[in-house]
Amino acid sequence: MYDIVIIGGGPAGGSAAIYAAKAGKKTLVLDSNKSMTARALMWNHYAVEEITGPDMLEVGKKQAAKFGAEIKEETVSNISGEAGNLKVETESGASYDAAHVIIATGALANLAEVIGLETKEHREPRFKTAIVTNGDGETSKKGVWAAGVVAGISAHTIVTAGDGARVAINVLSEIKGERHVDHDVLQK
Question: What is the DSSP letter of 149?
Answer without folding.
Answer: G
